Amino acid sequence: MPKFFVGRESIDGDRALITGDDAGHIVRVLRKSPGDEIILCDGEGRDYHCRVLSIDGGVLCEITGSFESSSEPDVDVGVFLAFTKGERLELAIQKCVELGAAALYPFPSARCVARYGPAELVKKAERWQRIADEASKQSMRARPPAVRPLSSFEDMLEGALKYSRRVILYEMEKDMPLREAIGGDFGSIALITGPEGGFEEKEIEAARKAAITPVTIGKRILRAETAPICALAAVMYQTGNLGG
Amino acid sequence: MPKFFVGRESIDGDRALITGDDAGHIVRVLRKSPGDEIILCDGEGRDYHCRVLSIDGGVLCEITGSFESSSEPDVDVGVFLAFTKGERLELAIQKCVELGAAALYPFPSARCVARYGPAELVKKAERWQRIADEASKQSMRARPPAVRPLSSFEDMLEGALKYSRRVILYEMEKDMPLREAIGGDFGSIALITGPEGGFEEKEIEAARKAAITPVTIGKRILRAETAPICALAAVMYQTGNLGG
Questions:
Q1: Pairing mode, if any, of strands A11-12 and A37-41?
Q2: Rounded mean pLDDT of B52-63?
Q3: How far is A139 from chain B (nearest CA, A)?
Q4: CA A192 to CA A82: how far, in whole Å?
Q5: Which residues, 6+ apart, have CB-to-CB distance to A81 below 8 Å?
């Protein structure tokens, strides 16, 4: 049954009224007509099973049942993303939210080209959170993950500590594949990825001392924004949360 | 050792001279200086192990050895992408090339919003191939994968036949997870993904008749451009080609 996001304001008692572009999508793209069933999702943790009543002047539905959303993964992944140039970080945030990241932590590292003063970082944080909120709704997440920028590499090391497993993607690492580092059971994992120029060796040494495992994700060189998406897809696949 | 793409014209006998932005990146971002070692990759299948000789007026290197590139995955994945709105398809092509797709086949399906006449498709094909070439170089692929647009859904079904395993991502599929469909050994796989509105039921029926397996990649709804990237990451992870 097609699942479709609507704002909470579209739902009133046992009725839902969807207007505008959303209604157009349901009628013209999904080709729904009276009698058809759809699931509406309010982006705040609930799914509504509905039957379409009419499609004139918006799509009017009868709500036949409402349920706690089951779309959240059963693994708690925190993705720590080194600052990359504007659009790249935004793309990584959007895709990581779609894939089910529980929290996102942008942070500065030595080779970051993008650098932000405190005031600028506050503004950026708002923008990143909006992107996460939007992606969360679009992908029917039960609730949007928080984006929490960190102001130093050391804060990143400390923030990662609250995750039971911790890996840092490092292109110079040859011996420890991601698969080996994420085998077995774990409840939570910190996934740490670098900027365009990669991490410096001394950063990796500091990570090692903080009990974070440097890992490789293979022989091809992935762009800074592609690496976290792929590593997260691998973690979700490994834990049965991506077609598993 | 950092691996770095350069055009073939930078290489002359046992010397390589890198100028412009690339030289700036090596000196200022990677902080290489005379005596340091780097690997240059020509995007045509060869890697060159080099020692930096000087960094004035471009980075001059001595080539100490050259090797057949080992960056290609050992699985042949053809990614069949339904037309999606401009930027989305371009992003999917870029990321699938980074991840190691062997060939990309954009194709039309019933709910595609994006539609192209024959002349427009030829122009689009050129643009998509340029994007693939660029991504191939950036990710140090041995050689760029071909982008071959198909003009009908039926051509897609036929094109998929040359792959030994064939899956189509379908959001209504609940019983067959991607993991089950891609378990065991296989030499080649066709990965087929839909447009923004998903596939129609009759398209899935036609795919089934063509011995293509409908699969689910989980409970979250991925955008049209995110699904192929994540499914390909899963295939690469499964086959030991992504940190495996």
A1: unpaired
A2: 93
A3: 5
A4: 8
A5: A89, A92, A93, A96, A104, A105, A106, A107, A193, A228
Cβ-based contacts of A174 with chain B (< 8 Å):
none
Q: Does B98 touch chain A (CB under 8 A)?
A: yes
Q: Is A86 on the interface with B (CB under 8 A)?
A: no
pLDDT digits (tens, 9 = 90+) for B188-207: 999 999 999 899 999 999 99
Q: What is the C-alpha separation between A83 and A194, in angstroms, rounded?
A: 8
Q: Which two tokens stand for residue B179?
A: 């993991």
Determine contact, residues A57/A27, Cβ cutoff 8 Å. Answer: no
- Specify the 3-state DSSP secondary structure of A137: helix
Q: A residues 153-192 near B, CB within 8 Å?
A: 171-172, 177-179
**pLDDT above 90 (res B227):** yes
Query: What do you get for the CA distance between the two ends of chain A, in Å?
Result: 20
Angle (CA) A233-A238-A244 rounded to 5° is: 90
Rounded Cα distance, A178 and A216, in Å: 6
Which of the four pLDDT bands, split at 50, 70 and 90, describes residue B185? confident
pLDDT digits (tens, 9 = 90+) for A53-75: 999 889 999 999 988 877 788 89
Using an 8 Å Cβ cutoff, are A42 and A135 in contact? no
Is A142 an interface residue toward B (CB < 8 Å)? no
* Among A224, A229, A216, residue whose Cα is nearest residue A167: A216
* Chain A residues closer than 8 Å to B29 by CB: 111, 113, 196-197
In whole angstroms, what is the distance from residue B227 CA to residue B231 CA? 6
Angstrom distance (rounded) from CA A134 to CA A138: 6
Q: Which residues of B touch A226 (CB under 8 A)?
A: 95, 98-99
Task: Write the DSSP symbol of residue B216.
Answer: B
Torsion sign, CA atoms A132, A138, A139, A140: positive
Angle at the Cα of B62 from the Cα atoms of B58 and B65, rounded to 5 degrees: 135
Q: Say if B134 is an interface residue toward chain A (CB within 8 Å).
A: no
CA distances from B166 to A197, B79, B181, B241 (A): 37, 10, 9, 19
Residue B244: which of A29, A71, A177 has the nearest Cβ?
A177
The complex scores an ipTM of 0.76
Chain A residues with CB under 8 Å of B178 CB are: 237, 242-244
Could you say which DSSP state residue A50 is in?
E
- Nearest CA among B107, B97, B74, B67 for reference residue B212: B107
> Is B55 in contact with B27 (CB distance < 8 Å)?
yes
Rounded to a whole number of angstroms, the distance from the CA of B149 to the nearest CA of chain A is: 23
Task: Order across the sheet with B165-169: list the strands.
Answer: B146-147, B103-107, B76-82, B188-193, B165-169, B213-215
Instruction: For residue B138, give the nearest of B41, B20, B14 by alpha carbon.
Output: B41
